[in-house]
């Protein structure tokens, strides 16, 4: 372990402190960490999803050979600095890591962190090794800013404060704008602002916090984040005893009703649509800060008082259960608000003498003083799972020491957006070490995510991480001094350390893996308490669990943060473009750990590849099914399974956990009440839910609504027949118009002949794939005849398109069709092409199928329907909609996208499409991340 060198020598009254003595973890003396790797040159070319044009190109970039194409692409496009095409542009991972690590090492030397130059070199080499081997990563702002001419901002998110004064409210608007412009996010509690039921000193009635939220929301929607197309990341919190809490709870649910009404009226209300900006409160996550008093009143059926902001007197009394039901009902309708458990949060507060914790960052994992920032880094846990499925404890401990040292150094050199944030962060030095790949680690080691064994391993790892982090913080306090606010908060800080250590004693270990972890964690907490009593602590906070969106992809993690595996199959990016679906690498490793023989593993993996789940997989024991449960799919983890995992690790975190508890569309309001209530009982600090399809995702068109209403309005013209009417086949005439399309999917060629009725309408399809007489050719002939006969019997083409688009099998990848640049299979391409050639625009819009020209118009903010002369007025009249003064735009669905959860039977309907590359994003904690380019919808 690392030692602290100190001595009794004094200069005047001040003790002379000496820096840290560093030890090697992964590196060897005299060998640079880069020299032990095989490096290779690659070309990174990113195409525009709308028209196939190249929107990023950098050739000859250098990465270690084991880095995936996806990770290299994300680092090249996101983190390399310098104008593309100039000599100043970074082109090697070595340059990126050198740029960042140099600043950390030089600052550490300058400020006395190291005992000698040799220790500084060890620090530098170990940091470089860990970063290039994807063992851990700093959060994205470090890669964006450190070592550049830009401000050295290292923090992803900030907590602001707002007082009951107009000047403070306007400062809030300004500060948020500056933060959003820099690409970061913020959180704020508005509970100090007087309610709309209280009087102003002038005699008028106060506006209330909800009214001021409108201005902040509009500002966030205008500035967005870092000048990008995604929304800004922000959190708004209101205390449960605020008189305006009911209005706050219902704000987003009411707006969601507006979205549906406007969508049904023909406005473009899709995420990123041009009319969605008219809806308010969409740029923030909302949370209610509930107290133990309120939750006990919910439990007992009692009443609860809402209090005036200035005097604290009760001005209204409500039934606690009614207010709690209102929260659950709103969350059922639109996923907001989440809950934050105020007394639990402040019971674990290390610095209460300096102020209460009132708010969080946008994803709810960072909780500390107002006007402070979260400085994050995450460990790739799977790197510490040995081949024998034991956890490599000693290197993990030393890595935590290294990361905490580096993170504390970064606060010394970092820049912050406001003077208040600078002052608070420098005074309390809050850190947020966390991890990713927990879900993959548990599966690979044969543990079910929702099991006692899985929770025991997770708790032991988290306890070890935080115990080591605070022990290192105490060593840093001896070397360079405790944080400025420590003296005032010493007793409270030490009390929280004892709470963590006591919680560690309650971990119930079940096997040798978690026993080894728990044994070391117990040692670390004992040493932490001993050194903290002597030296104090360098950092007011040390750990939390962030969503690890982009950096998780950078580290080639299979799972993000604390999340389980999303599904058993994933998409692997290919060198020549496109991607292929493969079974997760953790599955065969888990099967091996469970004792299956290689031939059994192969059979089970093949079954998963075909079906996407393990149910009825050949030879797989039913008691092992739970090991392969995922967030989505045939066997998905229950909502309480997610809550139980959060509860297992929460006592070992300084902050909280970025995680959304996913619930099925059939979940009830009562189910949400149970999750929110059990979260309080289990000691969580914050909790958010998402019920599938509770938000408006793919919008319905006017035409679709009109079709649904037509049967109700149609007059009865004849009695119903006694029995079912047999379908009538409408054959094509001998002479019929036809088109022949030659196509290529991932280099494999085929031909399609599509014949139409003279009065329009597709009636026949012939497909030629493979050599004449081959099995493939025969199967496609039979398939063609089946399609053709069904069309002639009246089966709508839309039905076939809906069924076969997004079907995935090889060959898949790039096509030679400018309208359909990527296809997931021959079937996907064929039916997209048929839709473009034979379906009207409005039908294709519902299915999310657009031509290159239509996508170009969408990107420019124009209406693609104008290409087809759509009769907007006629459509509106058919749906009995009263037209406004200006013509209504025809609704556009989001373009078709590869959705990693569609093939597993469930998907999040409003998961955003990446506005950079057009790929469907996937959940990462409370945010979404694009696996194609690394863009996020939040602050991760």
Summarize the structure.
With 940 residues, this protein is of the alpha/beta class. It contains 28 helices and 26 strands.
Overall structural class, as computed from helix and strand content, comes to alpha/beta
User: What fraction, in percent, of the residue positions are helical?
Assistant: 25-40%
Report the end-to-end length measured between terminal Cα atoms.
31 Å
Strand content: 15-25%
Instruction: Give the total of beta strands.
Output: 26
Biggest sheet architecture = 8 strands, mixed
- What overall geometry do the principal axes of the alpha carbons give? globular
Low-confidence stretches: 1-15, 225-230, 697-722, 870-909
What is the topology, as strand order, of the major beta sheet?
13-6-7-8-9-12-19-18
The helix count comes to 28
Query: From the alpha-carbon coordinates, what is the Rg to the nearest angstrom?
Result: 29 Å
How confident overall, as mean pLDDT? Answer: 85
Question: Your description of this structure?
Answer:
The structure is a single chain. This protein is an alpha/beta fold and 940 residues long. Among the domains are: 1-133, no CATH class; 738-839, no CATH class. Helix content is 39%, strand content 16%. The strands form nine sheets. Strands 13-6-7-8-9-12-19-18 form an eight-stranded mixed sheet. It has a three-stranded mixed sheet with strand order 5-14-15. It has a three-stranded antiparallel sheet with strand order 20-21-22. Strand 23 (813-817) and strand 24 (820-823) form a beta hairpin. Helix 2 packs antiparallel against helix 3 and helix 3 (117-132) packs across helix 11. The longest helix has 29 residues, at 452-480. It is globular. The two termini are 31 Å apart. Mean pLDDT is 85; it is low at 1-15, 225-230, 697-722 and 870-909.
């Amino acid at each position: 372990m690392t030692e602290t060198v100190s001595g009794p020598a004094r200069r005047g009254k001040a003790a002379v402190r000496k820096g840290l003595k560093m030890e090697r973890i992964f590196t060897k003396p005299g060998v640079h960490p880069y020299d032990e790797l095989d490096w290779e040159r690659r070309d990174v070319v990113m195409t525009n999803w709308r028209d196939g044009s190249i929107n990023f190109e950098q050739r000859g970039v250098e990465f270690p050979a084991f880095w995936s194409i996806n990770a290299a692409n994300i680092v090249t496009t996101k983190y390399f600095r310098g104008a593309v095409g100039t000599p100043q542009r970074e082109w090697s991972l070595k340059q990126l890591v050198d740029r960042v690590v140099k600043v950390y090492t030089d600052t550490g030397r300058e400020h006395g962190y190291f005992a000698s130059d040799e220790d500084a070199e060890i620090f530098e080499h170990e940091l470089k090794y860990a970063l290039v081997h994807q063992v851990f990563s700093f959060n994205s702002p470090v890669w964006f800013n450190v070592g550049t001419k830009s401000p050295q901002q290292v923090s992803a998110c900030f907590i602001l404060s707002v007082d009951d004064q107009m000047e403070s409210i306007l400062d809030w608007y300004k500060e948020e704008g500056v933060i959003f412009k820099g690409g970061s996010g913020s959180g704020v509690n508005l509970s100090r602002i007087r309610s709309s039921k209280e009087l102003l000193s002038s005699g008028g009635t106060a506006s209330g916090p909800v009214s001021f939220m409108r201005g902040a929301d509009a500002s966030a929607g205008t500035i967005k984040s870092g000048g990008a197309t995604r929304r800004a990341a922000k959190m708004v919190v209101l205390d449960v005893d605020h008189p305006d809490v009911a209005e706050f709870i219902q704000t987003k649910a009411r707006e969601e009703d507006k979205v549906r009404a406007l969508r049904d009226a023909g406005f473009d209300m899709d995420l990123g649509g041009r009319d969605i900006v008219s809806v308010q409160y969409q740029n923030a996550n909302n949370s209610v800060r509930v107290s133990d008093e309120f939750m006990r009143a919910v439990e007992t059926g009692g009443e609860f008082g809402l209090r005036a902001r200035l005097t604290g007197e009760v001005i209204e009394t409500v039934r606690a259960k009614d207010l709690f039901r209102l929260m659950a009902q709103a969350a059922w309708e639109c996923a907001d608000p989440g809950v934050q458990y105020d007394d639990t949060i402040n019971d674990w507060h290390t610095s209460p003498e300096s102020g209460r914790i009132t708010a969080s960052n946008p994803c709810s994992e960072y909780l500390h003083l107002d006007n402070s920032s979260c400085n994050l880094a995450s460990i790739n846990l799977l790197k510490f799972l040995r081949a024998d499925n034991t956890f490599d404890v000693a290197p993990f401990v030393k890595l935590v020491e290294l990361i905490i040292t580096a993170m504390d150094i970064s606060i010394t050199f970092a820049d912050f957006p406001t003077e208040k944030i600078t002052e608070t962060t420098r005074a309390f030095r809050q850190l947020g070490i966390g991890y990713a790949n927990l879900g993959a680690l548990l599966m690979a080691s044969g543990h079910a995510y929702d099991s006692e064994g899985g929770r025991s391993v997770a708790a032991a790892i988290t306890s070890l991480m935080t115990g080591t982090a605070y022990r290192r913080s105490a060593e840093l306090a001896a070397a360079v001094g405790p944080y400025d606010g420590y003296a005032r908060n010493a007793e409270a800080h030490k009390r929280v350390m004892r709470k963590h250590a006591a919680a560690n004693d309650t971990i119930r270990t079940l096997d040798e893996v978690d026993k080894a972890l728990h044994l070391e964690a117990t040692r670390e907490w004992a040493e932490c308490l001993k050194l903290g009593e002597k030296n104090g602590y360098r950092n007011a906070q040390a750990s939390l669990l962030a969503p690890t969106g982009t950096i998780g992809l950078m580290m080639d993690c299979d799972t993000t943060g604390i999340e389980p595996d999303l599904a058993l199959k994933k998409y692997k990016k290919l060198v020549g473009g496109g991607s292929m679906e493969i079974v997760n690498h953790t599955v065969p490793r888990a099967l091996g750990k469970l004792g299956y023989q290689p031939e059994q593993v192969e059979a089970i993996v093949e079954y998963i590849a075909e079906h996407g789940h393990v149910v009825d997989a050949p030879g797989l024991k039913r008691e092992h099914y739970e090991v392969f449960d995922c967030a989505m799919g045939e066997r998905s983890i229950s909502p309480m399974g997610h809550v139980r995992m959060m509860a297992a690790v929460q006592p070992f975190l300084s902050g909280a956990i970025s995680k959304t508890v996913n619930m099925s569309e059939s979940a009830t309001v009562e189910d949400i009440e149970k999750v929110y209530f059990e979260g309080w009982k289990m000691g969580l600090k914050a909790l958010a839910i998402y019920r599938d399809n509770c938000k408006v995702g793919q919008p319905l068109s006017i035409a679709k609504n009109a079709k649904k209403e037509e049967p109700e309005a149609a007059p009865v013209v004849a009695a119903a027949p006694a029995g079912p009417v047999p379908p009538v086949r409408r054959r094509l005439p001998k002479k019929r118009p036809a088109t022949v399309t030659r196509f290529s999917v991932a280099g494999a060629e085929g031909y399609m002949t599509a014949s139409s009725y003279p009065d329009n309408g597709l009636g026949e399809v012939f497909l030629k794939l493979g050599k004449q007489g081959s099995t493939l050719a025969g199967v496609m002939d039979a398939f063609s005849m089946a399609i053709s006969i069904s069309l002639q019997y009246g089966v709508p083409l839309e039905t076939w398109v809906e069924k076969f688009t997004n079907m995935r099998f090889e060959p898949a990848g790039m096509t030679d069709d400018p309208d359909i640049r990527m296809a997931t299979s021959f079937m996907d391409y064929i039916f997209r092409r048929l839709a473009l050639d034979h379906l009207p625009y409005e039908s294709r819009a519902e299915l999310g199928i657009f031509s290159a020209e239509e996508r170009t118009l969408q990107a420019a903010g124009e209406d693609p329907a104008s290409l087809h002369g759509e009769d907007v007025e006629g459509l509106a009249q058919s749906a009995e909609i009263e037209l406004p003064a200006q013509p209504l735009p025809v609704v556009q669905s989001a373009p078709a996208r590869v959705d990693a959860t569609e093939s597993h039977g469930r998907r999040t309907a409003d998961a955003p499409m990446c506005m950079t590359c057009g790929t469907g994003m996937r959940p990462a904690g409370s945010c979404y991340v694009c696996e194609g380019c690394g863009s996020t919808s939040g602050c991760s």
